[in-house]
Amino acid sequence: MNNPFLVPFNTPYGVPPFDIIQEKHFIPAIKAGMKEQKKEIKSIISNVNKPDFENTILSLEHSGQIIRRTVAVLYNLSYANTSAPLQDIMQKVAPSLSAHNDYIFMNTSLIKRVKYIWDNQKSLHLKGEKFKLLELYYKAFVRNGANLKSNEKKRVAEINQKLSLLSLQFGKNILDTINDYKLIITDKADLAGLTEDLIAAASDNASKAGHPGKWIFTLQNASVMPFLQYSEHRSLRQTIWEAYTNKGNNGDDFDNNNIVFEIIKLRAEKANILGYSSHAHYVLEEQMAKSPDQVYDLLNKLWSPANQVAKAEAGELQQMIRQEGHNYKLKAWDWRYYAEKLRKQKYDLDELAMKPYFSLHQVQNGVFDTAKKLYGLSFVEVVNLPVYHQDVKAYVVTQNGNKKIGILYLDFFPRDTKQGGAWMTSYVSQDKTGKKRTLPVISIVCNFTKPVGNTPSLLTFDEVNTFFHEFGHALHGLLSDVTYHSLAGTNVPTDFVELPSQILENWCAERDVLKTYAFHYKTGESIPDDLITKMDTSSKYGQGFATVEYLAACMLDMGYHTLKDGNIAEIQKFEKETLLKIDLIEEIIPRYRSTYFSHIFAGGYSSGYYSYIWSEVLDADAFSVFKTKGLFDKDTADSFRKNILERGGSADPMKLYIKFRGKKPDIGPLLDKRGLVG
Questions:
Q1: Based on the number of CB atoms within 10 Å of its own CB, is 88 exposed (0-12), middle (13-18) or buried (19 or more)?
Q2: In CATH, what is the architecture of 356-537+612-673?
Q3: Residue 360 contacts by C-beta under 8 Å, 6 or more apart in sequence?
Q4: What is the distance, to the nearest Å, from the Cα of residue 2 to the centroid of all Cα atoms in its chain?
Q5: Count of other CB atoms within 10 angstroms of residue 200
Q6: Of 101, 194, 281, 509, which residue is 20 to 30 A from 542 by alpha carbon distance?
Q7: What is d(CA 414, CA 448) in angstroms, rounded to the nearest whole number?
Q8: Phi, psi (rounded to 5 degrees) for 84
Q9: Separation in Å, CA 443 to CA 67, 222, 374, 422, 472
Q10: What is the dihedral of CA 303, 304, 305, 306, to 10 degrees?
């Protein structure tokens, strides 16, 4: 069988050959890849020469290329374009991959060679990237249990395999829950308040599902969130809200409560075996925050002012309900509906009036133009590159129109085979150990509303923000310019990785930038100045709610992962008690409840969801330099690129930040940006 993973990809720019990759290729390639890498590891161990950087660390870095190619495609497709056979493959290979990783990082003979180099790094003159790569591998061995006793190693290996399967099942259950739910509306009167494009999308959903003449709303964010924001039918808002907030918590085949229970318990046990007080202590040791105390210090500084603002916002919404002649109490499913009405009342700003100016095509032009002005990048669509789905578009990224920087995939629209949310990922990491720079292959995956009929995909401004955010991550991957792939792009501490994404969000609302991409999709008219002014004056509106729902999720994450033994009597009870401790008002729930908190139970953010706000301190502080010197000031942009975007994980993140900023970050700009100062 000709298996495309067994040799370097023979494609333009080295992208995965999606056009010939088949599901039957994955398991044989993974088996061959593990076999190949075990031979490479044995060769390193049996080397009779004294351990040094080249014969041990660099050899480790170069090992496992088949498995790296295969797993990158497999894992990315499992999130962006999965199938029942692909999910089955993931379940089959996850334990084997976990065991293979343990074979490497619990290998006593291998750690001896790595430790020798670590202990003799000065005499070996290992500095810069060589030192960082050595440090990365040395810590990986120690933190994976290489120094444990044999029985402890065995138990950690068992835990790793169980966790890999549990995380997969957690994510699958959420996807199945989303795909299983449909709010079917048969009476047109029940569509009151909803936007034309949302109604059209719901009609299209119904037609595809075999219900012509009806309307189907789903738990995809592009469907449920605008429904909650605009539907005039309170009972329907409650119905879809309860379905949305109980994903994975319905006592059915897709229930995640037991999975959360097992994950928390196993993570705590593993941390204890490795010598840490809790999973959070284990994780945070390698982050900028360093400890749970530091995380809580930041969260608590923000919680009090944010909660105070959120309570005031709730009072305003309750007053509006009374003014409308209703006597019911504000509930969580009412918040977005009345918050949008109050926004219109306070600022004369109607989000529906904004959407026609944010067609996806024009927003994409604005994103590309911003990257060109900041970093001299150009994006040219390539129609003959293989893609994994017909909706995906591929772009060659160049510097000043000639030097090739990388490849960018854009995958925008929801489908049953795609997880919800938005993310950036990598198929191929940048590398410079070969004869020439390996071009990074980066992908942005979103869930924006699909075009319907003659109406293009129209974004809310929040979705515009999401596009800029993910594009910031993409720039981090594309502009990476380090020697070793393990240090490239977004291979940085979790609480630093959001800086490049969040800082780019700042440009999307700037007047001068809006004028480059916000054009009415029918008339071509540029977004009016008075609308921009309204957007600006209302920018701090609703920040109490936004900050509190986010911080509550952070507190939930930390609450679970600071448990020393991981013992929880009942997940829903623990969640409720955690939120009571912080005085979260009942009208607001955490951005993610436990049973659909994918970031921490099916992603890489356990004990790290705080990272977004930690990075926002950095981004608000960093953007203040651009505001002072100019949005597209060349020296400032060059410095940010040179010291942050290009460097990946090749140096300590705080040192990189200080090189750009000249000082440590200040929390003041963030508090001001969110309107949380008195």
A1: exposed
A2: Orthogonal Bundle (1.10)
A3: 412, 448, 456, 457, 458, 459
A4: 34
A5: 17
A6: 194
A7: 7
A8: -60, -45
A9: 20, 20, 20, 11, 12
A10: 40
In the beta sheet, which residues pair with residue 431? 438
How many Cβ atoms are within 10 Å of 311's Cβ, its own excluded? 15
Please give the helix or strand (H or E) that residue 272 lies within, else none: helix 257-273
Residue 352 has pLDDT above 90, yes or no: no
Let me know: does 226 contact 460? Beta carbons within 8 Å.
Answer: yes
What count of Cα atoms within 13 Å lies in the side-chain half-sphere of residue 462?
Answer: 14
**Alpha-carbon distance 246 to 177, whole Å?**
9
Give the residue among 323, 310, 645, 402 at the shortest CA–CA distance from 500: 645
User: DSSP labels for 422-469?
Assistant: -EEEEEE--B-SSSSPBPPEEEEE--PPPPBTTBPPB--HHHHHHHHH
Amino acid letter, 620: A
Q: If residue 624 lies in a helix (H) or strand (E), which one and from where to where? A: helix 611-629
CA atoms of 228 and 233, how far apart (whole Å)? 9
> Measuring CA to CA, how many Å separate 209 from each of 180, 200, 455, 568?
12, 14, 21, 41
Smallest CA-to-CA distance from 350 within 213, 209, 476, 528 is with 528
Question: At residue 257, does pLDDT exceed 80?
Answer: yes
d(CA 359, CA 514): 12
Answer whether residue 537 shows pLDDT above 80.
Answer: yes
DSSP 3-state percent helix, strand, coil across the chain (nearest 5): 60, 5, 35
Distances in Å between the Cα of 465 and the Cα atoms of 358, 501, 669 are 11, 10, 19
Distance CA 117, CA 19 (A): 44
Which CATH architecture fits 4-147? Up-down Bundle (1.20)
Residue 393's closest CA among 427, 443, 460, 459?
Answer: 443
The stretch 128-153 carries a mean pLDDT of 97
Handedness of CA 366, 372, 375, 377 (dihedral sign): positive
The three-state secondary structure class of 378 is: strand
Task: For the chain, give the mean pLDDT.
Answer: 96
What's the CA angle centered on 584, arms 580 and 587, to 5 degrees?
120
The pTM score is: 0.94
Angle at 650 between CA 617 and CA 624, to 5 degrees: 25
Residues 6+ apart with CB under 8 A from 354: 460, 461, 527, 531, 535
To which residue do tokens 């008075």 refer? 530
Q: Which residues are catalytic?
A: 470
Partners of 656 in the β-ladder = none
Residue ranges per structural domain of the chain: 4-147, 181-245, 257-349+543-609, 356-537+612-673
* Tokens (6 digits) for 65: 């290329």
Whole-angstrom distance, CA of residue 586 vs CA of residue 360: 36
Q: Which residue has the tokens 């009151």?
A: 192
Superfamily of domain 257-349+543-609: Neurolysin, domain 3 (1.10.1370.10)
pLDDT range class, residue 664, cuts 50, 70, 90: very high
- 444 to each of 68, 100, 133, 192, 393, how far by Cα in Å? 20, 29, 27, 34, 10
For 267-325, how does the pLDDT look when each residue is reduced to its tens digit (9 = 90+)?
Answer: 999 999 999 999 999 999 999 999 999 999 999 999 999 999 999 999 999 999 999 99
Cα–chain-centroid distance for residue 117?
A: 35
